[in-house]
Amino acid sequence: MFVHDLSHGLVSSSYALAEAGGASAVHASEASGIAAVGWLMIALPLVGAALLLLGGRATDSWGPLLATALSWGSFVVGVAVVAQLLGAPAEERSLSVPLWDWIGVGDLSIAAGLLIDPLSMAFVMLITFVGSLIHVYSLGYMEHDPDKRRFFAYLNLFVASMLILVLADSYVLLFVGWEGVGLASYLLIGFWNWNPPYAAAANKAFIVNRIGDFGLIIGMGLMLTTFGALDFATVHGNAGQAAELTLTLIGLALLLGACGKSAQFPLQSWLGDAMAGPTPVSALIHAATMVTAGVYLVARSQAIYDLTPDARLAVAVVGTITLVYGAIVGCAKDDIKKALAASTMSQIGYMMLGVGLGPVGYTFAIFHLLTHGFFKAGMFLGAGSVMHAMKDTVDMRRFGALGRKIPITWLTFGAGWLAIIGFPLLSGWWSKDLIIEAAFVGEGWRPWVFGGAALIAAGITAFYMSRLFFMTFHGKARWEDDVHPHEAPLTMTVPMMILAVGSVALGAALWPTGIFESWMEPVFGHAVHHEPVIPVLAIQVAVFVLMLIGVGLAWKMYVADEVPVEAPRGNALTRAARKDLYQDEANDAFFVHPVTSLARTAIEADADVVHGALAGGTTAGVSGLASALRRAQNGFVRSYALTMLLGVVAILGAVWVMQ
Amino acid sequence: MADLFTAPEIDFVGLLPMLIVFVGGLVGCLVEGFAGRAQRYAVQVPLAVATLVLAFVALVVLAPDHQGITGAGTVALDGPAQLLQGLIVVLALLGMLVMAERLGGQQPDAFTQSGASAPGSAEEAYAGRLGATTTEVFPLTLLSVGGMMLFVSANDLLLLFIALEVLSLPLYILTGLARRRRLLSQEASLKYFLLGSFSSAFFLFGAVLLYGFAGSMRLDEIAAAISSTAGMDGLLVPGILLVAVGLLFKVGAVPFHAWTPDVYQGAPTPVTGFMAACTKVAAFGAMLRLFYVAVEGARLEWQPVVATVAALSMVVGAVLSVVQTDVKRILAYSSIAHAGFILTGLVSMDQAGISSTMFYLATYGFMTIPAFAIVALVRSSGTEATQIGQWSGLGRRAPWLSAGFTFLMLAFAGIPLTSGFTGKFAVFAAAISQGYAWLAVIGVLASAVTAYIYFALVVRMWLGDEAGDTQVAAPSLLTIFAIVAGVAVTLGLGIMPSPLLDLAQSTSVFLR
């Protein structure tokens, strides 16, 4: 931990150095104006994390406020950069900020630099705005936690890493941010690590993410051998000259990375457990920002996916499986946060499907990512407020009739609920319908499978989100005896209100006005609108009807009928869904058991070796070789000399024989 | 008769850095003779530090303008020589600071008060009562450093041999001066001396064969002879290989490594750090010059041998490190494995090979000295606690020290954002580009194996139960400075390796 913080601290100071020296290389579209100091966006929260972690207890009193202020500072710089981009002609909105020469070995030269373009800035806006709101919320939520300074340090560290991830101009620097958010996520999930299951959840997230990182590393290795470089400009510029098989492999490797970070099938198992972290963390990292990094990676690598239909199809398939999977799991969860986590998984599945559809879907996917960031973060914060009111209970079967007791939470959560189920004119309706419509574009089996799945899952979404909303806020009170619900303080409710406004209005503000489409156009090009296989109006009506059915069904089951406090046994599908469709069991059978038995063997071997009991049948592999070699190391100088002599004789003999 | 002998041109100004170190060492000897017992420490340490600082300044100021072959063709002052000389001086300075650590006592803590007495004898006890100090370690170290600086710039086999002895003899003595566990220390010293002499004999025999082949001891003339002479491989190839054996012994490459663990364990810990870092730089510098300047023309003969030695060193060093239970021996075997990694860069025989080798030497030196400095601080009932069991739970007792050591272990294992990663990356990249991908593969596997023992140690430090009587001595600013500097460089070269890589690249041209 100390090492990471220190290194981050140094990174930030070297940013400053690189800038002060002014010796950066000249690029064609080098940033000027405020964009030239775009590194400030990263540096501010990074400095905050370093100060809070190294400053120790001395920063306890003002540290959290400083962290919050720095996060807002980052947002302000972001806004200024966006304003500058808006002032420039559309084709000049891609700016590079060279920082320093990072690794130079022989012909390989890797420079660290930032890429400021509409795509990265859209993410910056989401990350810094939602991130800063969640800093504010945490001021209230973590108020009585003795370790809140550390918590805010990690939050700042997360924001900085996430900004490195989206602002990087090369896959290498992206990977630094990628690992940084992984680390911050690990630290925050396990923040209450005195609780062993929480620590285990942190480990699970960490390990599953390593599998994804493995894919990303392989992808980078392939790029390095194919293109000899890892910066976006070179890789994407030369993608056309590479063999299609290579591109497909790169695309699949990147997809594996995306699956790990974005909790997509088959690497989705960690997200539900990650809810062990404090709720603001779930809102920021596991709903709004980090889990969308995979979508960003695929969208950023569009030049590669454009040339490899197979890998792109794989992206769409993964997205489709996950969106259905998440929706089914969401129907059965009684833990409010886990139900929201399943819903996140499903919604990111929609985004993955969007980017997997190709040029028709990119803009829609990123748009859905933005709106989802608002309404899902808002609902997570609402869930935190509910937990605050209910003595940290998360079991929805113990909720009910909370609407009157905590009206602000009810209202803000309601806005998010209507948005996610796609209630007309709210944010989610604009963005999700676009993806569903795009999924129906194409020929052959694809539009029917992708579009059908997206359509039906929209109905299921309406059901499980309504189930969540009704079980929590409506029906009869099923509280435990000593619970007295009360509304949260303003530091918590104000961010919820702001996010609720976004849930309601962001879609209408950005889409029908054409703002978002034209903003993204320099990156994704002008999307040619294709006609879906069934008329758009029919799709919209179908989505609306399915939504009504879903909500109605939920009303019938969870408001009109009694909700049992103990979960009924349920049918086979329900039981499976409660257990994440046996994902953990499958992982156990295929990965954990083989690996743990291997590890157990290794531990036994280790125990034998380290404790000097080499007799115990562990003469295989390394330890066997070692014990054999160790016999030569007997401490007698005469045998050492003999070893040397034999070495000389062997060398001379071998050379003599070869000649 | 008049032109039978002309006095050679000697660029004394260019040689000044080495002269400063030698003179500093000699003055130190005089101080030993004339200064009172109580004042010696106070004089020797500043003298040694000033000498090294002065030598470094002289090197930086003079190096660019005083390149060339001088001293009748026996000394080459060129980019690699000057870069490595600078590296040796800086590493020696850090090593010297650790050696000067007194831990609150009156004399350097790691060294015995009476090196010549038998352990446990009345003389030893008398020296203790007298308050004797062993401050001669400082001039001895300076003389060794001078020999190392000469070693990397020697352009003549005879001078190379002399420099080898000048750097080695003080090391043999230093090895035997440990204050605690003196028998082990003296045994190590004797072993080092005997085996060192043995290897010197090989070196000398090889030099004779090369002289028989080329009619000259000078490296450039040997190179010329290789390209113009045919059919005398019987002298040339054994000559090259035997000379190489002498140098491979110094770096502890397999199968000439057997002394390394015993000597590293027995020597006073600060000396081990100094020896591990600086001797490696010197010996690899000499090896680079030998292979790239003198015998490049015969590379097809020796390259497979060096590649095999590299592979063996990596495998044996890595595998044996896994079964060690003593921290110093773990580091010793890791140094053997690292010798293999460096040879991987060296064997690639192009400019990237030179620069990556020099870069790796820097990274290794800066992580080794602080690692041994930390080892010297972990104590149990008055003596160093080097059993890994005694390090259990150290993280709770001394979090900062343990964090530093953990970081250094990550660097040894080659984890990104440490210099260990960038160094390995550089040498493996150089090897792959010259068709030695198989060596790089072995290297990666060996790093994975060694990573196991480093992580096992780290896990024990942070998660193990606290070992009963292990304490951490409170270091003075000298040691703290050395540790912090080493850790900072390790981190810096991990994040921003470019400046040093560029420097290594731009200085990687040998004068012939």
UniProtKB/TrEMBL annotation, chain A:
Q: Which is a GO BP term held by this UniProt record?
A: ATP synthesis coupled electron transport
Locate the NADH-Ubiquinone oxidoreductase (complex I) chain 5 N-terminal domain: which residues? 102-152
Localization per Swiss-Prot or TrEMBL: Endomembrane system; Membrane
**Domain NADH:quinone oxidoreductase/Mrp antiporter transmembrane span(s) in chain numbering:** 168-450
Identify its membrane topology class.
Multi-pass membrane protein
Keywords, alphabetical:
Membrane, Transmembrane, Transmembrane helix
Question: What InterPro entries does the entry give?
Answer: NADHpl_OxRdtase_5_subgr, ND/Mrp_TM, NU5C-like, Proton_antipo_N
Q: Which GO terms describe its molecular function?
A: NADH dehydrogenase (ubiquinone) activity; NADH dehydrogenase activity
User: Which domain of life does this protein belong to?
Assistant: Bacteria
GO CC annotations on file = endomembrane system; membrane
Q: Which residues form a coiled coil?
A: none
Looking up NCBIfam families in the UniProt record yields: NDH_I_L (TIGR01974), PRK06590.1 (NF005141)
* Protein name (record): NADH-quinone oxidoreductase subunit L
User: What organism does the UniProt record list as the source?
Assistant: Ornithinimicrobium tianjinense
UniProtKB/TrEMBL annotation, chain B:
- GO CC annotation terms, alphabetical: endomembrane system; plasma membrane
Any idea where this protein resides? Cell membrane; Endomembrane system; Membrane
Biological processes per GO annotation: ATP synthesis coupled electron transport
Q: Does the keyword Transferase apply?
A: no
Q: Name one Pfam family in it.
A: Proton_antipo_M
Q: Where is the NADH:quinone oxidoreductase/Mrp antiporter transmembrane domain?
A: 154-450
Q: Name one GO molecular function term.
A: NADH dehydrogenase (quinone) (non-electrogenic) activity
The EC number on file is 7.1.1.-
Membrane topology summary: Multi-pass membrane protein
Q: Which InterPro entries match?
A: NADH-Q_OxRdtase_suN/2 (IPR010096), ND/Mrp_TM (IPR001750)
Keyword set includes Nucleus? no
Coiled-coil regions, chain positions:
none
Keywords tagged on the record: Cell membrane, Membrane, NAD, Quinone, Translocase, Transmembrane, Transmembrane helix, Transport
Q: Which NCBIfam families does the UniProt entry name for this protein?
A: NDH_I_N, PRK05777.1-4
Q: Which family is this sequence assigned to? A: Belongs to the complex I subunit 2 family.
Q: How does it assemble?
A: NDH-1 is composed of 14 different subunits. Subunits NuoA, H, J, K, L, M, N constitute the membrane sector of the complex.
What is the purpose of this protein?
Answer: NDH-1 shuttles electrons from NADH, via FMN and iron-sulfur (Fe-S) centers, to quinones in the respiratory chain. The immediate electron acceptor for the enzyme in this species is believed to be a menaquinone. Couples the redox reaction to proton translocation (for every two electrons transferred, four hydrogen ions are translocated across the cytoplasmic membrane), and thus conserves the redox energy in a proton gradient.
What is this protein identified as? NADH-quinone oxidoreductase subunit N
Lineage of the organism: Bacteria, Bacillati, Actinomycetota, Actinomycetes, Micrococcales
